[in-house]
Amino acid sequence: MMISVLVSPHGNYEYEAAHGTVTRHYHRYLQGEKTSTNPIATIFAWTGALNKRGELDGLEDLQNFAGKLEDAVLRTVGQGYMTGDLVSISELPQKIRLDLDEFLNKVKENLEEML
């Protein structure tokens, strides 16, 4: 669930997710298997970039959207809905293991409630 932000000497920014299993999961996906890839780092890389773009262009609505999307992800996990990697380490009493699509749909539900 880690992201990195690279900043060039010229003030350019790059937000990226630091993943180790995505390639393996992608190959499984291509074979028709459901995967439990944790998309949180990718989502947060995108929200970081959207927030920065909003900051640079003075787009408060874009910054607010990025913040709400992050909140929706955190709410989803806090409700106990998570991918398999988090289920195995979570200390929440009630956990529901979701595959990638199910997790994203749950985040979408929470985001729609927040918008």
Written account of the structure:
By secondary structure, the chain is of the alpha+beta class. It has one domain (2-114). Helix content is 57%, strand content 14%. The chain has 5 helices and 4 strands, in the order ββαααβαβα. The protein has helices at residues 22-30, 40-57, 60-78, 84-87, 100-114; strands spanning 2-7, 13-18, 81-82, 96-97. It has a two-stranded antiparallel ribbon. It has a two-stranded parallel sheet with strand order 3-4. α2 runs antiparallel to α3 (60-78) and α3 (60-78) packs across α5 (100-114). It is globular and about 40 Å long. The model has no long low-confidence stretch (mean pLDDT 90).
State the main characteristics.
115 residues; alpha+beta; 57% helix
Task: Provide a quick synopsis of the model.
By secondary structure, this protein is of the alpha+beta class. The protein has five helices and four strands. The longest helix has 19 residues, at 60-78.
Helix content: 55-70%
In DSSP terms (H or I, runs of 4 or more residues), the helix count works out at 5
Low-confidence stretches: none
Integer count of domains = 1
Sheet having the most strands: 2 strands, antiparallel
Shape: globular
How many individual β-strands? 4
Distance between the termini: 24 Å
The residue-averaged pLDDT reads 90
Strand order of the main beta sheet, please? Answer: 1-2
SS content category:
alpha+beta
Strand content: 5-15%
Q: Evaluate the radius of gyration.
A: 15 Å
Order of helices and strands: EEHHHEHEH
